[in-house]
């Protein structure tokens, strides 16, 4: 290359870099004049040799491919790059008369090679970056996304077969045609359209980009490749939105779909509840059991077109469209899964390991989603108590639906009454007296109980609404209403009660609002010369110094409820007694009732009472219902006195139960 030509090309590249310097981002990579001068000299020299036919096409392509990869790594956008290449082309064309004829003729060819090299480098860079993000685990990318893009990459750069370009036939496309996707998108049609159209655009762009690339038009393929990756990330975003919506309310979405859409098939309720109850002492084994079932279900039905899988905690719902997926395959899978679980957890779980109920979705259409949700819970409870000698129990629940819905309506009615009580901020107070066991005289102590009333003034017992309050996670607001009601009626209570016992949900002790209301109740009771005893069933709360510090006062005592039920931590209770936290124990009523007919239970009862007395605790017997039981309970101090002469006298024992009085409204005791 002559010095004259070199000077001309130097001048072209100087103008080229002057243009780059006008771009703030691109110019940030040109750190000094010396660097620019070196780049101008090197590129002018190579381009001069390329135009002079001293370099073959492969070498030209390789040189500019390496340069392009550097520019890609600097993240200079392809538009800026191709604008610069076009600028270079124009500058060369403007000086063509100064170039030798052979160099003049090679300008279009060399510029074309440069364009192809940059397009190749940028296509490769875009795809590699996308694969890095896909492989990082961030976002809602599936293995299908990764495998599809890897196949596309290899089809371009490793001459392998291309991926499936038909959006209906690729793995993700088949899932988008499934019942699961249809249910997940129910009442989210805008999101469904976005996902389907983006997936279609992705495949169309891929097919076109692949065709351009194979035909040697890499520059046309480049924007399509970027569109592919942008659509892939957009698709991931839409899928993430769908999954978030699904996970936050999947059961409701499923039931909305069942209620509104016609489907020829069945709803399988698959529960591990029976097995979980047997493994409840081993959290690890329970987790393993759930994982085994989840893995098996996903593996078999995760991408099945005719099955919608909904996983809940320990239970599964399978909605099956029999026009696309036969029941026989479900049955075979259930048999295999139950056998596998039974083998893995042999000797730790009695059959059935897997309990399955089948419901005809058409039978649910006349009910509300709330009613169906409660019905499914009852179905799971029912399946958990049905015996079966084999690992798998499959039961048609359709004949039981009428019975279930009677219970459902009762549940929802009481739930509504609970909500009305919360809105009214008031409950009905009932009281049951405690009597001195030895004499039968009234002690002046009462347990405060809570009742609800329906629209017909029928009283709803605590046994019906207490579990509902807990299941609906309303413990804290409900206990606040109880305490507020007690506070408002405290002066009336003080007219006949020397001491009152109250019950709160264990969870409520974690609420600062409940603790504050309890402190206020204790202070007001003290002003009225009335004692306050809080019954607790979960004693660990009492072992927390902060808890005791917040509640312990001269007028607040604690009683251990259901003492002797089998769940008491006796060592902890002993320590709490030493710290003067606990004052009373209430002997579990079921233990008291069974003592009449069982000598072994009487021995247990003696031991429990003996422990309480040794700890210096007052004793209250629950469920005292007849004279025979009173005689038995009165004999306990005499028997124990021979073993421990220091024990208290029999008159320190209290009894509570129907023998003395049923619980009665506050107004009854005020009149009495």
- So what's the CATH class of the largest domain? Alpha Beta
CATH architecture descriptor text of the largest domain: Alpha-Beta Barrel
User: Largest sheet at a glance?
Assistant: 8 strands, mixed, barrel
CA radius of gyration? 40 Å
Number of domains: 4
Taking the alpha carbons of the first and last residues, their distance comes to 122 Å
Please identify which CATH superfamily of the largest domain we are dealing with. EAL domain
The chain-level structural class is: alpha/beta
Report the total helices: 26
Percent helix, as a range, is 55-70%
Q: Uncertain spans, ≥5 residues at pLDDT below 50?
A: 644-651
CATH topology type of the largest domain: TIM Barrel
Mean pLDDT: 86
Shape: elongated
Strand order of the largest sheet: 6-7-9-10-11-12-13-14
Beta-strand percentage?
5-15%
Query: Could you give the count of β-strands?
Result: 15
Characteristic key phrases:
elongated, 672 residues, Cyclic-di-GMP_PDE-like, Four Helix Bundle (Hemerythrin (Met), subunit A), Alpha-Beta Plaits, 5-stranded mixed beta sheet, Globin-like, Chemoreceptor_zinc-bind_dom
How would you describe the overall organization of this protein?
- Helices cover 59% and strands 13% of the residues.
- The chain is of the alpha/beta class.
- It has four domains: 1-122, Globin-like (Orthogonal Bundle), CATH 1.10.490; 137-248, Up-down Bundle (Four Helix Bundle (Hemerythrin (Met), subunit A)), CATH 1.20.120; 265-403, Alpha-Beta Plaits (2-Layer Sandwich), CATH 3.30.70; 425-671, TIM Barrel.
- The strands form two sheets. Strands 6-7-9-10-11-12-13-14 form an eight-stranded mixed beta barrel, surrounded by five helices. It has a five-stranded mixed beta sheet with strand order 2-3-1-4-5, sandwiched between helices.
- It comes from Dissulfuribacter thermophilus.
- This is Diguanylate cyclase/phosphodiesterase (GGDEF & EAL domains) with PAS/PAC sensor(S).
């Amino acid at each position: 290359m002559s010095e004259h030509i070199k000077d001309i090309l130097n001048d072209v590249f100087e103008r080229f870099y002057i243009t780059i310097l006008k771009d703030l981002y691109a110019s940030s990579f040109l750190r000094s004049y010396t660097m620019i001068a070196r780049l101008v000299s090197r590129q002018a020299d190579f381009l001069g040799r390329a135009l002079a036919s001293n370099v073959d096409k492969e070498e030209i392509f390789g040189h500019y491919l390496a340069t392009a990869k550097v520019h890609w790594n600097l993240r200079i956008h392809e538009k800026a790059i191709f604008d610069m290449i076009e600028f270079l082309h124009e500058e060369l064309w403007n000086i063509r008369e100064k170039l030798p004829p052979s160099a003049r003729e090679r300008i279009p060819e060399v510029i074309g090679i440069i364009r192809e090299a940059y397009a190749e480098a940028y296509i490769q860079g875009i795809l590699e970056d996308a694969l890095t993000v896909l492989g990082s685990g961030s976002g809602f990318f599936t293995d299908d996304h990764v495998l599809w893009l890897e196949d596309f990459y290899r089809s371009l750069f490793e001459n392998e077969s291309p991926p499936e370009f038909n959006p209906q036939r690729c793995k993700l496309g088949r899932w988008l045609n499934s019942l699961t996707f249809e249910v997940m998108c129910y009442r989210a049609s805008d999101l469904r359209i976005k996902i389907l159209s983006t997936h279609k655009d992705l495949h169309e762009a891929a097919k076109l980009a692949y065709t351009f690339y194979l035909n040697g038009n890499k520059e046309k393929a480049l924007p399509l490749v970027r569109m592919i990756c942008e659509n892939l990330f957009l698709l991931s975003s839409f899928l993430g939105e769908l999954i978030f919506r699904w996970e936050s309310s999947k059961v409701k979405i499923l039931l909305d779909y069942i209620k509104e859409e016609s489907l020829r098939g069945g709803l399988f309720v698959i529960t591990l509840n029976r097995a979980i109850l047997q493994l409840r002492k081993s959290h690890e084994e329970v987790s393993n059991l759930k994982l085994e079932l989840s893995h098996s279900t996903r593996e078999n039905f995760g991408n099945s077109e005719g099955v919608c899988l909904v996983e809940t905690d320990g239970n599964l719902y399978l909605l099956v469209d029999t026009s696309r997926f036969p029941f026989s395959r479900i049955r075979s899978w259930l048999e295999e899964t139950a056998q596998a679980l039974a083998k893995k957890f042999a000797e730790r779980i009695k059959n059935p390991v897997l309990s399955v109920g089948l419901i005809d979705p058409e039978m649910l259409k006349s009910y509300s989603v709330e009613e169906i949700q409660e019905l499914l819970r009852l179905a799971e409870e029912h399946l958990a108590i049905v015996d079966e000698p084999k690992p798998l129990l499959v039961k048609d629940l359709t004949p039981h639906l009428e019975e279930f819905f009677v219970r459902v309506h009762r549940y929802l009615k009481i739930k509504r009454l609970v909500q009305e009580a919360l809105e009214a901020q008031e409950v009905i107070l009932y009281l049951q007296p405690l009597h001195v066991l030895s004499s039968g005289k009234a002690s002046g102590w009462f347990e405060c109980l809570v009742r609800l009333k329906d629209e017909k003034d029928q009283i709803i017992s605590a046994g019906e609404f207490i579990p509902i309050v807990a299941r609906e996670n309303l413990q804290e607001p409900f206990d606040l209403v109880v305490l507020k009601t007690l506070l408002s009626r405290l002066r009336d209570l003080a007219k006949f009660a020397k001491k009152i016992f109250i019950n709160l949900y264990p969870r409520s002790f974690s609420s600062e609002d409940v603790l504050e209301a309890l402190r206020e109740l204790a202070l007001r009771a003290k002003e009225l010369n009335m004692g306050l005893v809080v019954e607790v069933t979960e004693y660990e709360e009492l072992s927390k110094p902060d808890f005791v510090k917040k509640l312990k006062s001269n007028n607040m005592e604690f009683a251990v409820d259901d003492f002797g039920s089998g769940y008491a931590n006796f060592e902890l209770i002993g320590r709490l007694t030493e710290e003067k936290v606990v004052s009373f124990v209430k002997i579990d009523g079921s233990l008291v009732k069974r003592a009449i007919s069982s000598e072994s239970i009487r021995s247990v009862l003696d031991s429990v009472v003996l422990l309480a007395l040794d700890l210096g605790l007052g004793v209250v017997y629950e469920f005292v219902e007849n004279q025979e039981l009173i005689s038995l309970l009165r004999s306990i101090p005499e028997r124990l006195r021979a073993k421990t002469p220091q024990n208290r006298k029999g008159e320190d024992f209290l009894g509570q139960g129907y023998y003395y009085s049923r619980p009665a409204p506050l107004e009854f005791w005020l009149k009495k």
